[in-house]
Amino acid sequence: MSFPFRRSAASLSVLALLLSGITAPLSAKSDPAATPVAPGSSHAQVRPWLYENSDVPIDPAWRFGTLSNGLRYAVRRNGVPPGQVSVRLRIDAGSLMEHPDELGYAHFMEHLTFRGSRHVPDGESKRIWQRLGVTFGSDSNAQTTATGTTYALDLPQTTPASLGESMKILAGMMTDPNIVDSAVDAERAVVLAEKRESDGPQMRISDATRRHFFAGQPLADHSPIGTVATLNAVTAAKMEAFHQRWYRPENAVISIAGDIDPAVAEQLIKDNFGPWTVPGKGAPLPDFGEPDPKAPATRVTVEPGAPTGLTMAWLRPWKPHADTIVYNQDKLTDMLALQIISRRLEQAARSGGSFLQASVDQQDISRSADGTFVTIVPAGENWEKALGDVRAIIEDAKDTPPSQIEIDREYAQMDTALAIQVENADTEAGAKQASDLVSAVDIRETTVSPQAALEIFRSGKAGMTPQKILDSTRRLFSAGVFRAQLITGKVQPGVDARLAAAVAAPVKAATNARLADKVVTMADLPKLGAPGRVVSRTPIGLPGMESITFSNGVKLTLFANDAETEKVRINVRFGHGQQAFSPTRPVPGWAADYALVASGIGKLGQRELDDLTNGRRMGMDFSIDDDAFEMQAVTRPADYKDQLLLFATKLFAPGWDPAPIARVKTGAGVAYDAMERAPDSVLARDLNWLLHDKDVRFRTPSRNEIDALTPQAFRATWEPLLASGPIEIQIFGQVKADDAIAAVAATFGALPQRTDVPVPAANKVMRFPAHVEAPVVLRHKGDKEQAAAVMAWPTAGGFALTKEARQLEILTQIFNDRLFDKLRSTEGAAYSPSVQNNWPFSYESGGYILVTSQVRPDRVNYFYGVVKDTAADLAKNPVSDDELQRAVAPMRQLLMRAGTGNAFWMNQMEGATHDPRYVQAMQTMAQDMLTVTPADIRALAAKYLVPARSWSAVVLPEGVAAR
Fold first, then answer.
1. What is the band of 123 on the pLDDT scale with cuts at 50, 70, 90?
2. Contact, 807 vs 764, CB < 8 A?
3. What is residue 837's DSSP assignment?
4. Mean pLDDT, to the nearest integer, of 314-330?
5. How many other CB atoms are there within 10 angstroms of residue 211's CB atom?
6. With contact defined as beta carbons under 8 Å apart, do 89 and 150 qualify?
7. How confident is the model at residue 14 (pLDDT cuts 50, 70, 90)?
8. Which of 287, 169, 130, 165 is nearest to 219 (CA)?
9. Are strands 621-624 and 727-733 parallel, antiparallel or unpaired?
10. Number of continuous H segments (helices) and E segments (strands) in the chain
11. Confidence of residue 43 (pLDDT cuts 50, 70, 90)
12. What b/e string do you get for 535-551 counting C-beta neighbours within 10 Å, with b at 16 or more?
């Protein structure tokens, strides 16, 4: 079993580096679960194949089966979103199944299967699925990891015929892919491009980490992408041999969850995969080995420009186990113990300690090790101090049991996470359910219903005693083979010996790590005034939406509905957002998304607010939109009124704790040097600023600006912004309309009348850079074989040309598809070309069409040639009806699926209380976008893809010229 509240470790952790792979309609709800099965009550049932070695309750929504050829399957009905069927096909063949001379073959096979098969000519499967409304890359994709390859298809508006055609294609991909020399040679260029683009600081750190932590095991040198040498040596005969060994029905699992009769899905599996046979015996699974106690315990990896980071691990052999109730309750106890420590570490980091971030976690890694991991990002150069402080906090947890209040705090958080899954079970997407099942197969565990997971957790509460937590902690941080790795951005003499000494040094338990047992309630928030009065209440937008105005000027857009059970979305928009800032005078907007939230409310700091919201579905995300600042949260009917109070008091009496400023400055400084180490990070740093003609609102702050920021300056910028400007609230979800209006009246309606400062005209202008004949040259300090190229054309903004804005989405999709076919599938010149349409409705100008791609330096000129030729052809010649529909059909399905949830409509209605044009644009979106013709596409391309107005840039390695 897996659980939804697992905390991921810091970005430098071994987990983040290792676990990423190579990358007739019903109502919009899942079928309600059958009568809940109490833990342990299913012993008398016939155990399906997934549950053979388990006593956890069988999820009755799944229908399991095994074909005579050994293929296993599971199907279920799910109507989220309506009409969609999600298919996951997993083959038990990942990089760990490769021989030493086959590195990268599992991933290469994934690529080959998509090229063609006996049923589909080369490259045609993508087009067939596009005609059925499938978006390539999101609705159809695959992933290869160390232990398996999973093919994913989300088929919208499914009929038995379209699902039958799709299953026929998938069966052909598995049983008889087009493994011929011409296909292998073509795909080799694509895979090498993918490898080239993924190479960089993060990949080198990942490889070094894997080699150190798993020395002596196959995982150490079996990255899914492979090596240049093994990829260049691939032949059709070698791929055929790999396919014969591993692509066999007994190694395959299919899960289907969607808006279709499970009996129909089951029959399609039997019809299409039942005949699949492979002569001879398949290969036995290789031995993945065990952590080697004789390998070096410590390692220092130097990656120029990388932030300093530390990872410690206690690695135990991974063993298959029975996925029983008791086993899962013990796992939950371990998780609770780790979350207590992580919370203590986070509090120490917030207090301005020696580390910026630290966390602990437990993971089973690729069926190769059961590990406890500690990740640390030091706050400065003194990593030894950070390491010592973290070890002291862990030592304290090993030395003394936690208090009952600490246990109750984490228990409440975990219980709430599981309860939310129960509350939202009938709106859980079929795609997630299908993916969860094959993920369970991958880790050799089971999947249960949300209700069963909650009951298993709650039935184990009595065993989560202070002593049991202490025992778990001691085991997690002592048993196993110890490893430690230091990542540093520069060579330091003697650092290897210093690391070895630091982890071996005696450690004394911290005496100040434990959190105070103080109880905080909503009554501790600052007091607001008397509730406001409603002065108007009118319909707006879609049927059921309302616009409410209060006597103090606060406006509410309310959409009370049951589309998402037990879910309430709240968005508070205030002030003027980005337009409140000057395009020429820098302000510390970059620090606000963290520091503004973490600075507290009134006398309550972030620590107290954590306690206030613990065990509840409440939060506070902050962002800066074009025309408003935003605070957002997804909550639930039981909590949304207090969520509104939390937001209102944040505006009424914000706290100004200086500690978050120090932390955000340290974090920005730590990441700064890494921005120049790869072409994609240079673009992330500079492109938005350059595309807006060097408007400082879009600029990454300089190191001097970061260092110069003070708490006083931050407060001087943000205090008046929190206190002024209009307030627009959006509440979309399962609420009673009158209750929600009363809740807003008691919170935001109780705020004093707010003054407003008109936006200066200069702030409402968004610019695009002037045309350049030759690309602007940017430089990076990374791999000499990596570059990135950009070309953009200005469009417009605002509402006057709304229909054109919508139809540009179709033009850019067609543009993107052509570049994909030419640059990736045919030439292998670039793995991930991208075309985007950016049209700002909040500005009258500043929109653009943007083409970006990573590319080799010697292919930069070729890239620009393909882009220019494609743009010119789109402007000159109408697209075919088939090409147009292959762009329109996925977009139609995307809009239909998005429209079944509240988030989409909420986003479209932002700003509607002060500008009714947003309502009209929302109402006409589908009509404007989907009625586009070939002539419209040609006219749009001719109007906007004008060579004399284009702007371009290229990111090259230092000392290398474009060719």
1. confident
2. no
3. E
4. 96
5. 16
6. yes
7. very low
8. 287
9. unpaired
10. 31, 23
11. very low
12. eeeeebbeeebbbbbbe
> Which residue's entry shows tokens 């190579």?
22
Q: How far apart are CA 595 and CA 151, in angstroms?
A: 41
Q: Which two tokens stand for residue 594?
A: 């963290």
Beta-sheet strands, E only, within 449-533:
481-488
Which carries the bigger pLDDT value, residue 67 or residue 963?
Answer: 67
Least confident of 356-360, 593-597, 668-672, 712-716: 668-672
The dihedral over CA atoms of 885, 889, 890, 891, expressed in degrees to the nearest 10, equals 100
Longest Cα–Cα distance in the chain = 80
Token pair, residue 932, equals 């586009």
Name residues whose C-beta falls within 8 Å of residue 186's C-beta, 6 or more positions apart in sequence: 115, 825, 826, 828
End-to-end CA distance of the chain: 52
The Cα 809–Cα 796 span in angstroms is 14
Do 204 and 480 touch, CB atoms closer than 8 A?
no
pLDDT at residue 118, as a whole number:
80
pTM above 0.90, yes or no: yes
Query: Position 611: which residue type?
Result: D
Answer whether 889's CB lies under 8 Å from 155's CB: no
Residues 6 or more apart from 509 whose CB is under 8 A from it?
392, 395, 396, 398, 399, 400
**Helix-strand-coil percent breakdown of the chain, rounded to 5?**
45, 15, 40
Residue found under tokens 């991930």: 832
Q: Are 503 and 221 in contact (CB under 8 A)?
A: no
Q: Of 96, 594, 133, 154, nearest to 369 (Cα)?
A: 96
Which among 206, 212, 149, 202 has a CA at the least distance from the CA of 369?
Answer: 212
Which residue, chain included where needed, has tokens 């089971």? 446
Residue 205's identity, in one-letter code, is: I
pLDDT surpassing 50 at residue 201: yes
**3 state SS of 796:** coil
- Distance of alpha carbon 705 from alpha carbon 214, whole angstroms: 42
Joined together, the tokens standing for residue 16 give 């983040």
